[in-house]
């Protein structure tokens, strides 16, 4: 009997449990974080990487998870596979590249959002936008060009990340290249 | 030069005053004024829709084309962005009235527009476009708030930014004795229908009759007028 028990104890267990759940568990909570009421000034959702309003950054941010940015930033922000939320206190002079961008604060620089960009009431964005889709609330201030790119185009752009998010050297470009080779289509 | 211009065409306006049922309840609606300026007190957010011959003409000229660049001077809105990008064009948005207020709003609004330093800064910040960059310009009624000297510079820059053969749509109030006129946000409902959201009552810098409009766009190839029922003169000019 004693021997039997020992045999049971040593029965080899399938090596499933320890490793597998790590990755999905990391992904789920931040993405599905409770969306704040539209236009309300949200706080950083739990589980999302957050940069507070008293933080000043000069340089480059590269995030591999959702990011909430409410401070001051000069340089480039890249969140290629996730959502970037620019909080109501944020002041960015930066080139931005992300899968999804929500703007509540102030941005001067070009934005590339492969999936969509959401410019909320009282937000201010000066720069050119390339995106798969756009939502602009009444009351938002936007100055610049909007170029809607198809999924295939944005995939191409994603392959050349260095080109996409360049620092905003001239924050309010009067005109920048918008649609691809329009002359040929005329 | 005038021989080349299209014949002045005045049309009675189309059925105006359509109520827009799908708007949010917070937005108050009112009927389009039938003749002359609407004397009722407007409130911010008042909305009405109406047919626009100028808009119809504008989009009929670029029908079937894609990949064009359109400059919209009424500020970014979901409606305009959605409509224009939906046609396959790129849109450049600029809220000229807001930019005017930011540049000249402190003190005497019109007097400030004659300050050379300010005007230069304003023009370089807001109208510094490359030559032949746009295929169409939607100026709406924004040109009425520029003093003559500044307006000539603005029109000259717009003319340079518009490619030859491109069209510009502008609107001018017809009632010349009004102290102030309603300024609107112009939202495109479809290729022939506008949604006008009341913004504020503003004092215009100058009023334009047909002759003044023709003079203003004298460097353009042609000028075409449409009269509307709400005391607006819609103008399509071709570069």
What is the count of β-strands of chain B? 10
Distance between the termini of chain B: 13 Å
* Largest sheet descriptor of chain B: 6 strands, mixed
C-alpha Rg of chain A (nearest Å): 22 Å
Mean pLDDT of chain A: 71
How many separate helices of chain A? 5
> What integer value in Å does the Rg of chain B equal?
17 Å
Question: Roughly what percent helix of chain B?
Answer: 25-40%
Number of helices of chain B: 7
- The structural class of chain B is alpha/beta
Describe the strand arrangement of the main beta sheet of chain A, using strand numbers. 5-6-8-11-9-7
Report helical residue fraction of chain A.
Answer: 10-25%
Strand content of chain B: 25-35%
Order of helices and strands of chain B: EEHEHEHHHEHEEEHEE
Q: Could you please describe the fold and organization of this structure?
A:
The complex is a heterodimer of chains A (186) and B (239). Chain A is an alpha/beta fold and 186 residues long. Chain A has a domain at 28-33 and 46-161. Chain A is built from 5 helices and 11 strands, in the order H-H-E-E-E-E-E-E-E-E-E-E-E-H-H-H. Chain A has helices at 2-9, 22-31, 151-159, 161-164, 182-185, and strands at residues 49-51, 56-62, 67-69, 72-86, 91-103, 106-108, 111-119, 124-126, 129-131, 134-136, 141-148. Chain A is globular, with a radius of gyration of 22 Å. The model of chain A is unreliable at 1-37 and 161-186 (pLDDT under 50). Chain B is of the alpha/beta class. Chain B has a single domain (2-20, 38-238), classed as Rossmann fold (3-Layer(aba) Sandwich). Chain B is built from 7 helices and 10 strands. In chain B, helix 3 (96-104) runs antiparallel to helix 5. The longest helix of chain B is centred in the middle third of the chain and has 14 residues, at 148-161. Chain B is globular. Chains A and B meet through strand 10, strand 11 and helix 5 of A and helix 2 and strand 4 of B.
């Amino acid at each position: 009997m004693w021997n039997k028990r020992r045999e049971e104890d040593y029965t080899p267990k399938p090596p499933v449990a320890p490793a597998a759940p790590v990755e999905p568990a990391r992904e789920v909570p931040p993405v599905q974080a409770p969306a704040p009421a539209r236009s309300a000034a949200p706080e950083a959702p739990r589980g999302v990487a957050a940069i507070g309003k008293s933080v000043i950054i000069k340089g480059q941010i590269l995030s591999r998870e959702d990011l909430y940015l409410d401070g001051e930033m000069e340089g480039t922000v890249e969140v290629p596979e996730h959502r970037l939320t620019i909080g109501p206190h944020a002041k960015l002079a930066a080139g931005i590249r992300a899968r999804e961008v929500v703007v509540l604060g102030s941005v001067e620089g070009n934005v590339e959002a492969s999936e969509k960009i959401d410019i909320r009431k009282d937000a201010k964005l000066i720069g050119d936008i390339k995106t798969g889709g756009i939502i602009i609330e009444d009351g938002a201030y936007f100055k610049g060009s909007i170029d809607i790119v198809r999924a295939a185009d944005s995939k191409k752009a994603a392959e050349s990340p260095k080109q996409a998010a360049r620092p905003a050297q001239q924050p309010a470009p009067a005109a920048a290249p918008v649609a691809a080779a329009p002359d040929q289509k005329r | 030069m005038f021989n080349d211009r299209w014949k002045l065409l005045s049309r009675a306006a189309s059925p105006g005053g359509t109520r827009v049922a799908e708007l949010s309840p917070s937005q108050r609606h009112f009927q389009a004024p039938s003749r002359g300026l609407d004397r009722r007190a407007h409130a911010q957010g008042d909305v009405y829709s109406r047919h626009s011959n100028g808009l119809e003409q504008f989009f009929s000229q670029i029908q079937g084309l894609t990949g064009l660049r359109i400059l919209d001077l009424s500020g970014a809105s979901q409606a305009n962005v959605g409509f224009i990008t939906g046609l396959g064009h790129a849109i450049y948005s600029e809220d000229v009235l807001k930019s005017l207020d930011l540049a000249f709003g402190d003190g005497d609004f019109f007097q400030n527009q004659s300050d050379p330093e300010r005007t230069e800064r304003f023009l370089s910040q807001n109208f510094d476009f490359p030559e032949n960059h746009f295929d169409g310009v939607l100026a709406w009624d924004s040109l009425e708030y520029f003093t003559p000297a500044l307006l000539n510079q603005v029109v000259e820059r717009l003319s340079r930014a518009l490619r030859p053969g491109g069209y510009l749509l502008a609107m001018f109030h017809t009632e010349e004795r009004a102290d102030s006129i309603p300024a609107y946000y112009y939202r495109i409902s479809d290729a022939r229908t506008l949604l006008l959201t009341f913004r504020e009552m503003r004092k215009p810098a100058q009023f334009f009759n047909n002759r003044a409009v023709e003079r203003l766009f004298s460097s353009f190839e042609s000028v075409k007028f449409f009269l509307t029922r709400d005391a607006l003169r819609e103008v399509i000019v071709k570069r």
